[in-house]
């Protein structure tokens, strides 16, 4: 089995509204491909050459372009970006908000199996073509639509609001203290985003007090106990990562590049009710999320003590809260001990979402997995600029689809 | 620098209220909002919270009236004066501030172009070191630019620390500018806008105002066409700015700051732009609640429905931009020999060259011009525009081809372009695929 190296990549500026700019999906893909190739020192001529030898392929992550932009067949869409993509193996991979990760995982397996030398992994979503309400309904298809999505206004905030309820119930938290913890997560991610030049909210105001002031005019409730400040953003954007084989790296580059060390992929019951039923009486509310983390640790031969920083899927503050124990930073039910002591802050011993995550950075659904992976790369390569963590030898990401239904983890690190 | 308590004077005004919001939110400062009467200031506090989308800051906003001014000042580390742009009125209030401050405090005046040197005259020699101009752009939550204008005596260390505070804590983009009329951003921006207004008169037989705006639409790097921007800003404010620059500067583009006669007529009639419901443009309600956009026809001297111009060069550019072909979009512009394409090109190059020349003249560096235009206007910044046009050699050549002899004789094109560096801004996001 071959090793999988990460050459780098690019993301678009998540502050941009492509609909307002009057630009289409081809313009979005062109930019991310051009920037991704430029940042990895690859040229379209190289791509053509590799394609002649059948040593390159494309993996496109996207959730639901059919709804947002009336477009399917997204792997083939790259042929509209440039002629260099004519004839290239390319397909779209989908697992709701974990679409980017399933594209990455497939790409990695093709490199590992020595079938291709170079894999271009591109995740994207254009979400600002419709109102938040209609978009919320589209996203409901990541849950079981007939019972959890259809006819329900903003289904996902409600599902993750139920996760917050379950956390309080199962671990017997004081509600006030728990909600304050969620506000700390929100304020941290907005704060980190201020340091990230690609983050959607980099100019927005948010602090812990504002995040904890729920049920107000400017921070209304959107699902259960969760308010606007607990939610990730509606975002337009794309991200690209280039994975390469050991042979390709050694032949073309002198510098060292991070390597993929482990991954995990577990699927939990589709509906939130069944998730809760299944895990009743167990330690973890989301046992398959935890299992995906353990699988990655086991494949990498590592434990939480070896991980220097994390990017997690904070689609809501409650999901980052649960991720703290899923990563093994604390025992389940004790997440607040890490949050309150500042362990997950940028300068803490287990920084979570130095990039700002989905809450601060933005969440173009199909791009998020690839964006997290890119952020792991940036930290490991020392290219994270203002949000660079002090120690970056190994980083881990957790990308989830649906209500923690598809769970994907990756560990990449320096050799 | 650590700032906990500030006083904003003139906090019931648009700028004062928004500035209070920025300090109370990002800075988490306690802000005494001083205005003429408590109830209007209370209302301004609500607006300030709304402007930063944060109701938690209401706790930080303390409405006060002028009877409590000296107490507020004495309790503050920073005093931000943001009253009406009138030198005499500003001097009076600055004298009042001067009576109540001590050298451990900082005094900022919010002005879009009055002389800092003159205002500093209200203070003792010692306090002059703690006094400077700070020009926020409206609305500051979206426009992050702050021009920092030190006076002759302002302490350099204070300037450095304040800039750092504004960038790190208040999430501002700061540019230090010299105490020159209208400073940097407005000088560059309003040159472009006013010149467009002048050309509207020159081309009144082609349609005038909406004709020029159609040539300089969002596909050239601004979300709003220039003459419509003047309407949005307010024609009285536009007039005050360009008159001030025209009277007090003497650069090669001085004549482009002369307000065209038709604009003066519109102002005289009280049609001050969008805030007055009527100006250079007017939105007219037709039957069934449908609104139509009208424009002042300079030739006819009356308002008419806007024309829907269709210029082949603009259509081509928009199509290319829609598909992300930026190079091709500008090739269409360069290759098109129509009067409209040439006008468009001349305006773009004029903008780049004037921005570089003025920044140079007032002792700034080219990237300052980028910062002011990107963060103060959301316009494609000049250095980024150079890249969009194909780089500095190409842009210099185009300038030689398109700009008038009069301009070329007065500026050292070679030298100006030699200073041009890579922009830190991405030009792509500014170029909209929209007419």
Helix-strand pattern of chain A: EHHEHEHEHHHHHEEEHEHHEHHHHEE
Name the beta content range of chain B: 5-15%
Return the CATH architecture of the largest domain in chain B.
Orthogonal Bundle
Distance between the termini of chain B: 46 Å
Strand percent estimate of chain A: 15-25%
Q: What's the pLDDT, averaged over the residues of chain B? A: 96
Count the strands of chain B? 11
Q: What overall form of chain A do the CA principal axes indicate?
A: globular
Unreliable residue stretches of chain A = none
Q: So what's the overall shape of chain B?
A: globular
Report the CATH topology name of the largest domain in chain B. N-(1-d-carboxylethyl)-l-norvaline Dehydrogenase, domain 2
Mean pLDDT across the residues of chain A is 98
CATH class of the largest domain in chain B: Mainly Alpha
Structural class of chain A: alpha/beta
**CATH evolutionary superfamily of one domain in chain A:** Thiolase/Chalcone synthase
- Could you tell me the radius of gyration of chain B in angstroms? 22 Å
Q: Ranges of chain B with pLDDT <50 over ≥5 residues?
A: none
Per CATH, which architecture of one domain in chain A? Answer: 3-Layer(aba) Sandwich
């Amino acid at each position: 089995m071959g090793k999988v190296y990460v050459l780098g990549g690019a993301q678009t500026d998540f502050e941009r509204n492509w609909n307002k700019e009057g630009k289409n999906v081809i313009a979005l893909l062109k930019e991310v491909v051009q920037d991704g190739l430029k940042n990895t020192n690859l040229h379209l001529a190289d791509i053509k050459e590799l394609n002649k030898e059948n040593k390159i392929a494309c993996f496109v992550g996207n959730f639901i372009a059919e709804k947002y932009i009336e477009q399917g067949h997204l792997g083939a869409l790259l042929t509209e970006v440039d002629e260099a993509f004519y004839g290239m193996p390319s397909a779209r991979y989908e697992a709701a908000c974990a679409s980017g990760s399933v594209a990455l995982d497939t790409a990695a397996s093709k490199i590992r199996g020595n079938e291709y030398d170079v894999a271009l992994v591109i995740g994207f979503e254009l979400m600002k073509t419709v109102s938040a309400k209609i978009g919320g309904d589209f996203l409901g298809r990541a849950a079981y639509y007939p019972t959890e999505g259809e006819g329900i206004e903003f289904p996902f905030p409600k599902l993750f609001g139920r996760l917050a309820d379950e956390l309080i119930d199962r671990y017997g938290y004081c509600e006030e203290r728990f909600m304050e913890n969620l506000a700390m997560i929100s304020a941290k991610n907005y704060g980190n985003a201020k340091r990230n030049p690609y983050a959607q909210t980099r100019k927005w105001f948010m602090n812990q007090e504002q995040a904890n002031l729920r049920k107000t005019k400017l921070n209304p409730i959107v699902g259960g106990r969760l308010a606007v400040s607990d939610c990730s953003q509606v975002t337009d954007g794309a991200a690209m990562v280039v994975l390469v084989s050991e042979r390709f790296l050694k032949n073309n580059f002198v510098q060292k590049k991070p390597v993929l060390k482990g991954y995990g992929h577990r699927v939990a019951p589709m509906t939130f009710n069944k998730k809760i039923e299944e895990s009743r009486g167990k330690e973890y509310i989301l046992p398959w999320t935890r299992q995906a983390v353990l699988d990655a640790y086991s494949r990498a031969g590592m434990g939480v003590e070896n991980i220097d920083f994390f990017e997690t899927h904070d689609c809501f503050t409650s999901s980052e809260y649960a991720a703290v124990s899923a990563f093994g930073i604390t025992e389940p039910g004790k997440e607040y001990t890490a949050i309150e002591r500042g362990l997950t802050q940028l300068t803490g011993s287990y920084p979570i979402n130095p990039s700002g995550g989905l809450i601060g950075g933005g969440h173009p659904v199909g791009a998020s997995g690839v964006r997290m992976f890119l952020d792991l790369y940036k930290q490991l390569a020392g290219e994270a600029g203002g949000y660079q963590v002090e120690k970056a030898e190994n980083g881990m990401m957790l990308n989830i689809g649906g209500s923690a239904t598809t769970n994907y983890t990756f560990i990449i690190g320096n050799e | 620098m650590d700032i906990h308590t500030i006083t904003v004077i003139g906090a019931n005004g648009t700028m004062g209220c928004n500035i209070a919001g920025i300090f109370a939110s990002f800075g988490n400062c306690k802000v005494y909002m001083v205005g003429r009467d408590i109830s209007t200031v209370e209302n301004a506090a609500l607006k300030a919270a709304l402007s930063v989308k944060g109701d938690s800051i209401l706790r930080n906003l303390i409405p006060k009236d002028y009877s409590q001014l000296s107490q507020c000042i004495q309790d503050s580390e920073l005093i931000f004066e943001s009253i009406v742009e009138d030198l005499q009125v500003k001097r009076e209030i600055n004298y009042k501030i001067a009576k109540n401050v001590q050298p451990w405090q900082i005094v900022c005046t919010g002005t879009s172009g009055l002389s800092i040197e003159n205002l500093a005259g209200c203070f003792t020699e010692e306090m002059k070191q703690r006094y400077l101009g700070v020009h926020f752009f409206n609305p500051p939550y979206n426009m992050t630019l702050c021009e920092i204008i030190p006076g002759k005596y302002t302490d350099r260390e204070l300037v450095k620390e304040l800039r750092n505070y504004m960038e790190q804590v208040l999430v501002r983009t700061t540019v230090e500018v010299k105490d020159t009329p209208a400073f940097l951003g407005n000088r560059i921006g309003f040159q472009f806008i006013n010149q467009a207004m002048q050309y509207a008169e020159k081309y009144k037989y082609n349609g005038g105002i909406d004709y020029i705006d159609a040539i300089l639409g969002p596909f050239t790097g601004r979300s709003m066409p220039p003459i419509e921007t003047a309407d949005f800003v307010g024609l009285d404010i536009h007039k005050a700015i360009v008159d001030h620059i025209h009277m007090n500067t003497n650069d090669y583009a001085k004549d482009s700051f002369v307000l065209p006669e038709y604009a003066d007529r519109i102002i005289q009639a009280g049609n001050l732009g969008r805030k007055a419901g009527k100006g250079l443009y007017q939105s007219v309600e037709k039957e069934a609640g449908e609104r139509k956009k009208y424009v002042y026809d300079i030739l006819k001297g009356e308002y008419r429905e806007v024309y829907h111009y269709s210029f082949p060069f603009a259509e081509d550019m928009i199509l290319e931009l829609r598909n992300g072909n930026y190079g091709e979009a500008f090739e269409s512009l360069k290759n098109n020999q129509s009067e409209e394409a040439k006008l468009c090109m001349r305006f773009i190059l004029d903008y780049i060259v004037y921005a570089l020349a003025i920044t140079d003249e007032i002792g700034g560096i080219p990237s300052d011009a980028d910062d002011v235009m990107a963060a103060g206007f959301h316009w494609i910044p000049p250095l980024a525009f150079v890249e969009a046009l194909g780089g500095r050699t190409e842009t210099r050549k185009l300038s030689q081809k398109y700009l008038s002899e009069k301009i070329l004789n007065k500026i050292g094109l070679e030298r100006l372009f030699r200073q041009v560096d890579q922009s830190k801004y991405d030009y792509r996001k500014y170029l909209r695929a929209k007419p």
